[in-house]
Structures are given as structure tokens and as C-alpha cells.
Amino acid sequence: MPAACCGQVGRPLETITPPDWQAIFDVNVTGAFYCSQAVAPGMKARAQRADHQHLVAAPGSAISLTGIQAYASAKAAQIGLTRQLAHELGPWGITVNNVAPGFVRSNPTTERQWESYGEEGSERLVESIALKRLGTPEDIAHAVLFFASDYAGWITGQVLSVDGGK
User: Fold this and answer.
1) Fewest CB atoms within 10 Å of the CB: 10, 14, 47, 158?
2) Span 74-115, pLDDT tens digits
């Protein structure tokens, strides 16, 4: 079974409908935009009282293992949004960064994707990772915690790949 994203599976470019494309962009880019838009006024208002404030997104890779063109494009758009928001919110001392996780078996969708690879495909995936293991939710959480900490107070507009050396 091919991997799915928003209920979609990888298929040839010429078969993608506008609603298929838009659904993935809405989840991955529009959602990130609206979330940022919702919290920005409060963060700006706190700028006088807070030493550091941080927005951290987790877009995933700009190249998708799912074979879904909109997914890969949406992740690249999230990176552009991160860089733009870093410049826009920087004057208020707000950092905006992005964690790009590698493959992590963390939910029913990634479990189905993992199972779809079969034994040979999953072995190939692990062998393609420099550290020879899949990531864990804790690996990703640690990167987010770093960006949300004062240790990352002068880092903004960046993407940190947390992928075991893909």
C-alpha cells in the first residue's frame, strides 16, 4: 500500500486535481500561516516584557518520501514562510525557526507508511540514514526545545534537519 498524506497517496503529476493539491497546502501551509497570525499580536504585545519569544514550526522534509507533489511543495513553502516571518517578527525580538524531522514512527499514518515499505524497503530506509536508526518523537522534541530555549536566542529564520544524517 502506498503512503498517504491527508488521505492521498502518491500518484503521477498529471492525475492531481486542484482540490487534492489545495487540501495538502491548506493543512501544511495555510494552517501554519493562520496559527502564526493568531499568536503574533500577543507576542508583539509581550515584546516589552519578555526577554525572548520563539515560534517553532516542524514542516518535515522539502523532499517527500510519500510521492505526493503537493506535500513536498507545501513543506518548501513552510520554509519560505519561516524565513519571511523571522524578518517580519525579528524587530520584536521574536525568533522563528523550523524543525525538519526525518522519518519517525509516531502516528497511525507513519505506521501505515512504514508497513507499506515491507521488510526490504524499511531496511533500505534505515540503511540510508547515517546513524542507522529511525528517529524518535523525543529526538524531534529535543530540537524544538532547543529552538524554544534561550540557547537559540540569536538564531532565527533557520531550518534544522533532525533526520539522523539523511
Assistant:
1) 14
2) 989 999 999 999 999 999 999 999 999 999 999 998 898 899
Helix/strand/coil for 96: strand
Cell for 68? 505526493
DSSP letter for 12, please: -
Rounded-to-integer distance, Cα 156 and Cα 119, Å: 40
- Active-site positions read 71
Domain layout of the chain by residue ranges = 16-162
Helix (H, G, I), strand (E, B) or coil at 5: strand
Instruction: Please write the tens of the pLDDT for every residue from 106-148.
Output: 999 889 889 989 999 999 999 999 999 999 999 999 999 999 9
Q: Which three cell numbers stand for residue 103?
A: 522519518
